[in-house]
């Protein structure tokens, strides 16, 4: 990468670097410094992911109930509008649920893109300064991705636990103590893990465009940006 | 004359404003020697900031070349350019541009992190530099806890972090009051003498004239005149006369 012949005698073959742990350190600092802004980004993620895990958890319960064919429980579910055909086999959720889930996740990503675009604009000067000090485009990109990854991890974890907990109590309220027969801890664990992975993905997806925009900016433009 | 560290040759720069093209720099030739203290003077809109950005590799000329250490910087790729900004050039800005979320020390060590210097060494050097600019006790402070003059001192320490050959200062006193500005100017002068750093500053602060080895006057995208220091005292006399 540094093999341009004309400069061999003058510029030693050295690269600028930013070690990974340093990137994480800077990303954590940025999150802390803009805690409120980060909270708003994270909040939409928490809501979307808790909705996701709530729905998935309930779908798992419905599936177990329909397969076990527990008469009283099945009656209750039918009364609530669950249709056995959707849960016994196939997708495990109803088309309507899938549609609402998709919409809620979409709204969440749009919200993240929006707040992150604002966050990036706010930081044009810092980005320009860092570039003047020798930061490469990909350092900037990496900082934003790590930040989004961390936010995603935290937001999705809170959201997933929150959603599953509510669904858990909801199951007890619905079925009483027989709920124990329908709750599978393996399935619940899977729901939480999927939800967290999905949350991280959404968060990173949402920051990708703003971060690319920031990383590609010329230092002079970046510093003019705020004035 | 000793080898030049910066050589600007036939540089022009056009900006497109809507449909019309504006030529901001109309052919600049300039040679700057190692350890010189140069002030680029001129009214706003004369193109001095543009020239300054060219020398710093922050912007590319429309034609002509800028050589730093006899390397044409328009030929460098992104990695080499980043390396140049990191190790060869230190930047000081009118608006200080201290990174807000980091402490004074972290700001000073950031270029060293990019330069691949180990944490301990960077910390030690950072403290030395903060000591040099008189802010050793404030290394833990965040920018908003520092005054403008102190922030500019942090910026100077940061500019010196990787022992650059050149320090580019764009209106370093522009946002400071008179006496603080003077302190900053003398600090820069002292550093240039002590560390043999070339200092190039774009300014319209006349206080800068006293310490400059040469003053490059720019107007309307061209070099109007270059004055050495011995010629300068006369011009300062004239200026202060016209002002009183």
Which helices and strands occur, and which strands form pairs?
The complex is a heterodimer of chains A (about 230) and B (about 240).
Chain A lengths: L19 H14 L1 H34 L2 H10 L3 H5 L6 H28 L1 H9 L4 H39 L3 H4 L2 H32 L2 H6 L3
Chain B lengths: L3 E14 L2 E14 L3 E5 L6 H8 L7 E6 L2 E2 L5 H10 L1 E4 L11 H11 L4 H14 L15 H12 L6 E5 L7 H18 L2 E6 L10 E6 L2 E7 H15 L1
Parallel strand pairs in B: 3-8, 3-9, 6-7, 7-8
Antiparallel strand pairs in B: 1-2, 1-4, 4-5, 9-10
Helix pairs in contact in B: 3-4, 3-5, 4-5, 5-6
Describe this structure in words.
The complex is a heterodimer of chains A (227) and B (244). Chain A has 227 residues and is mainly alpha-helical. Chain A has one domain. Chain A is 80% helix and 0% strand. Chain A has 10 helices and no strands. Chain A is elongated, with a radius of gyration of 24 Å. With 244 residues, chain B is of the alpha/beta class. Chain B has a single domain, classed as Rossmann fold, CATH 3.40.50.300. Helix content of chain B is 36%, strand content 28%. Chain B is built from 7 helices and 10 strands. In chain B, the strands form 2 sheets. Chain B has a 6-stranded mixed sheet with strand order 6-7-8-3-9-10, sandwiched between helices. In chain B, strand 1 and strand 2 form a beta hairpin. The C terminus of chain B is likely disordered. Chains A and B meet through helix 1, helix 6 and helix 10 of A and strand 5, helix 2 and helix 3 of B.
Observed structural traits:
heterodimer, A: 227 residues, mainly alpha, 80% helix, disordered N terminus, B: 244 residues, alpha/beta, Rossmann fold, six-stranded mixed sheet, 10 strands
